[in-house]
Specification:
Length: about 230
Amino acid sequence: MTVRPLIGVSTYLETGARWGVWELPAVLLPAGYPRLVQRAGGLAFLLPPDAPERAAEAVARLDGLVIAGGPDVDPARYGAERSPRTGPPAPERDAWELALIEAALTAGVPLLGVCRGMQLLNVALGGTLVQHLDGHAETVGVFGGHPVKPVPGTLYGEIVPEELSVPTYHHQAVERLGTGLVPSAYAADGTVEALELAPERGWVLGVQWHPEMGEDLRVMRALVTAAS
């Protein structure tokens, strides 16, 4: 029997969610994430926010980790004043996901950051963020799309060697790169669209877009393969 790698995916924590007759605090994840993991050959395991000191224990049981998209990272995490256009903080999620990232980097567990996840990876390694990009995520709640160009010779460039139009929804971006990170894809306006660590640091990749909203499996399949 084939043993599929177990891929943990971080989740939202919402104070009030509605289903049926209920309105209660809930941990949530858009179904596109577990479906993409499953289509790429992995088993999806949801990781709701927990005490940061438990992150290493959680990561030790995983074969791979995805830090999902979501709310803006608290600017205090990278030493910046809050912009009026920055969304409300999610302190429990920031603390948990930063601990997950640290645990994955320490243990050498393959790691994929998606949108917020890429931004948080950059912050975890000492980088900073642009708090607002004009013209991005113009329609609330609607994904857009634009082409991204890979950097030859990088991990992402090997996974997706051609320019590709990707599903996107964000208004923040990488400013100063974190220690050891290199850009591996750009948008036409120069925005860093993917970044990664050098191969000797393990399989670590962040993408600014939302692969779970598209049909291209290559990025997730590469994570699942590395996790195998």
